[in-house]
Amino acid sequence: MLPVIAGERQSCFAITERSAGSDASRIQMRAERVADGWVLDGEKVFITNGNEADFAIVFAVTDVQAEPGKGITCFLVDRDMGWTSEPIPTMGGDKSPSVLTFNQVFVPNGNVLGEEGQGLTTAMQWISRGRWVIPAIAVGASGRLIHMAIDYVKERSTFGEQLASRQSIQWMIADSAVELEALKWLVLYTAWRVEKGLDARHHATMSKLYGAGRANDIVDRVLQIFGGIGYSKDLPIERWYREMRVWRIFEGTDEIQRMIISRNLLKGHVRIGEWD
Q1: Catalytic site residue from 243, 251, 255, 274
Q2: Which of 37, 74, 84, 256 could join 252 in a cystine, given CB atoms 3.0 to 4.6 angstroms apart?
Q3: Average pLDDT of the chain?
Q4: Which of 114-118, 216-220, 227-231 has the lowest mean pLDDT?
Q5: Model pTM?
């Protein structure tokens, strides 16, 4: 991983398939054991950084007799082993996700990451730890958008008065600021739990749900404040509007986050009001 840390190589996380998005246990891509390794066949879709990656962290079924979610193994697969990628055009912008195609790609035994058959456990650990990165990004992006709105409403006048004097505008800015502060503390508490080695999965899930939703609300208000110029490509607001929308989908949809949060509470895995 040192070349990745040094910025010399790029990777991508390849688990999603056309029929297995939020339910990663249903992936179909196969890895068949052969002498000295495995042969991978199948396709991954909507893979972030897939077009730029030098190698992929790939999850494939190695035991078809196992129950769903079992018998999945994780592999490190260099691009020069033979897999290809193709961009998927989206509303998000220049950096598109991709389709990764594996056609009889040989992977040596030494490229198995973790234990054979335990790939889904590895994947969930990765996803759980990375889930709160999205709301952390949302804190910075939302803060910048609110600052832009504040500066604009103090300069822009309509009907002889500054926009800043309009109560409807004031309330949009106030609501956005309150939501940003709430998100900031939720992300900070999640980060504190990670730093202390505590289980942060539940709070990361809450951060993801709240952060993605509030960021979308904030950018929508800011675009409304700017009006036509905000809708144009002269400013970055419209780009953030498009890019933020996917935050409610990838790394687990809003609906999946709500399912996880409610399940944790109803089964007693976490309790309201408990602080470690």
Answers
A1: 251
A2: 256
A3: 90
A4: 114-118
A5: 0.86
